[in-house]
Amino acid sequence: MTSVSDGRDGTRATAAVVVPGERGATRIADRVVAKIAAQAAREAVGVLPTDAAPPYATVVVRPPVPESARALGTATASARVRVHLELDYPTDIGARCAAVRRHVAERVSALVNMEVPEVAVEVERLHPAPAHGADGRTR
Hints:
Oligomer: single chain
Number of helices: 3
Structural class: alpha+beta
Distance between the termini: 75 Å
Order of helices and strands: EEHEHEHE
Strand content: 25-35%
Shape: elongated
Strand order of the largest sheet: 3-4-5
C-alpha cells in the first residue's frame, strides 16, 4: 500500500500497488509497427532515385506466450517484419539489405519494445544509375 496526496486539503488516500503481471498490457497495432519499420527502412536506404517508390513494410506481431514470463512482467511481443524496397544500381545490394535489416530491427525494438527475430528484405526493383555522357543504355 502506498499513500498518495490528493493535493486539495492534505488528506491522504491509500493506493494499492499492483504487481506488473496484473497491470494489463499495451497492445500496439500491426500497422503502427509496419509504419515504424517502413520509416526505419527509409532511414537506412538513404537517397533513392526520383522514380523509386518509398520502402514499405508488412508486419506480423505475435503476443508474448509464456505465462511464467507474463506473470513476472518480463514477456515481450515479437514482430516479424518484411520490408519491400527499390534500390539504385550499381550498388552493393547485400550490404544495403543488411543495413536495412539491422536498422529496422534496432528501431522497432527500441520504439515499441518488441523482439524482432526476423527482418526479411525484398528488393522489388533496381533503378540503373544514369551514365554520364551515355545514351541511356545499361550494359
